[in-house]
Amino acid sequence: MRTLFEPKDSAVARELAQKVIKLADRCKEKTGVTPAFMEVCGSHTMALARSGIKLILQGHVRLLSGPGCPVCVTDQKQIDAMIEVAEAQNRIVCTFGDMMRVPGSKRSLLSAKTEGRDVRIVYSPLDAVRIAQENPDREVVFLGVGFETTVPVLAAALQLAELKQVKNFSMWATTKLVQPVLRTLLSVKKVKIHGFLLPGHVSIVLGEQAYQFLADEFHMPGVITGFETVEMLSGIYKLLQMVLNDQPAILNNYKSVVRPDGNPVAQKIMNEFFTPCDETWRGMGMIPQSGLDIRDQYSHLNAKKKFNVTVGEPKKTLCRCGDMICGLATPDECILFGKACTPIHPVGPCMVSDEGSCSAYYAYMRKEG
Questions:
Q1: How far apart are CA 303 and CA 83, in angstroms?
Q2: Residue 315: pLDDT band by 50, 70, 90 thresholds?
Q3: Is 48 helix (H, G, I), strand (E, B) or coil?
């Protein structure tokens, strides 16, 4: 469907890219450092690489991948626990496709499947509820990984299972919240950036007001933007303007879908079935109240309480996914990248997920040879 504004117009994109470069060079002259911005969305990470924006702006703007890939930020111990859930006999484990090849300390979900375990890729957690109804003599577990974008549909699956009284369905929820991790990046990790390219999908649920603390408390600008080339370049341009003028604010550059207060219907169903909890993040450790767990009144749907799963300490590797999530390293700075760690034989989740920084870099930015 054509719209009044065609964001894929290459001529518009080229012209805007040149304006971004000129403004970035002005910022560098004023501050003495190359402006650095972090995208807080895995879809932005891939889109920025695929569009060529990251390559075009090299030397003018540093674009750092942040904690936007839900698979990548999941703690290794949680990965091992979810794989352990799939090991039991007479159990069906359902998951999104990105989780299948994430390496655990001993194996992946995919290797468990090849050894006979019933692990299925679904496109919606509602499919897992249906599978549970079709297999009443087997326990069905859905692995719920994601940010606020995914949580409403996770809640909808719990609501459906409760409504239909599906006794053999449960969910292993390992969800993350954007606001607490941004505070941690700025206050604990002290990431050296000048602004955030804020997530489009998450913001549909949260709304633009959810990020106002960045400007008010941290003097940090942020721009919510979409995923087309022109939209992203426009967002970067507005960040540069705020840096140059030293006037941090939260701007909504995605008003077609993001409202000031977000989506109240999605927020309501989230709050009905989930409650904030402490959550451990890859590369950052435990962040208080940074995740969501299933409320106690629905504990019969909580796989963490339904099954006794224990795992040891994760196997340590030289993978630097944790540093990349925090904006402390780029894929080419990892000694494993493109050698021991490739899309065919990934060592860490950043190389597995379609939204991972290593996956994006390998596909669109690595130097051949």
A1: 13
A2: confident
A3: helix
